[in-house]
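Data availability (excerpt). The following record was deposited with the supplementary files.
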Amino acid sequence: MAKIDRGHLHDMWELMPFEIQAALKEAVDILITDARRGGSAVIRRCPRCGEHDTVDCHEIAGIADPTVGLCVACGYVWCLECDTHLITTVTCGHWRICANCSERKDESGCCDTVPWECAHIKLWIERTNPRA
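Predicted structure:
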């Protein structure tokens, strides 16, 4: 497992609300302990650093969202549905796109298009998260 620089994590998370910062820091501590015992479940490689030390946040108190990914190695927080870096909140902006979308939705409020293939979300990502 990569060595964690807690000061670096603090810098990355300083724009998040205090409650979310605390939840993420606690999650990292728990995940490090679990990983030492061999109990950490990897979701996929971190899109930022490529490490395997990643989890979704569905069991993290204060977040409880399986669509939020956390890299234990570098502290990167991102949306697992559209790959957007979550900087100031753990609620991805693509949910606002979905809520205001006029596409046909099922009884749960979801359409048949997965977020990473949705033209509306792709356009939003292109406008708000330009890639060099």
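Summary of structural features: The beta strands are 54-57, 65-71, 77-79.
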